[in-house]
Amino acid sequence: MMHYGPGMGSGGWFLMWFIALAFVALTVAAVVAVIRPVTRTHAQLPASSAPAEQLLTDRFARGDIDSEEYEQRLRTLRAARAGGPP
Fold first, then answer.
1. Per-residue b/e over 4-43, b at no fewer than 16 CB within 10 Å?
2. Which end of the chain has the lower number of beta carbons within 10 A, N or C?
3. CB-hemisphere CA count at 13 Å for 30?
4. What is the enclosing helix (H) or strand (E) of 48?
5. Which residue has better confidence, 32 or 39?
6. What are the DSSP E strand ranges found in the chain?
7. pTM to 2 decimals?
C-alpha cells in the first residue's frame, strides 16, 4: 500500500468542521437578514397608524386643531393605512 504523508490529522479535521459550520451559519444569517425586513414592514403597517390616530384625537381634544383639520388628517391617516389615495 502506498502512503503519501501523515494525512490531515486531528487539527485538519477540526478546521474542516469549523469552516463547514461557519459556512452554514453565514448562510442562515444571510437568509434571515433578507427575510426579516420584508416580513417586519408588512407586520407593522396596520398597527402603526393607531397611535397616530390617538395623537390626532388628543390634539383635537386639547383644541390644537379644529374639526375640519381633524377630519382631513384622519381621512389621510386611514387612507394611508388602507394603501389608497387620501
1. eeeeeeeeeeeeeeeeeeeeeeeeeeeeeeeeeeeeeeee
2. N
3. 6
4. helix 9-62
5. 32
6. none
7. 0.41
Q: Distance from CA of residue 28 to its chain's centroid?
A: 16
Is the sign of the CA dihedral 67, 68, 73, 76 positive or negative?
Answer: positive
d(CA 70, CA 56) in angstroms, rounded, equals 7
Domain boundary assignment for the chain: 12-82
For the residues 51-70, what does the mean pLDDT come to?
Answer: 90
Give the separation between CA 46 and CA 37, rounded to whole angstroms.
16
pLDDT tens per residue across span 1-35: 555 666 666 778 888 999 999 999 999 999 999 88
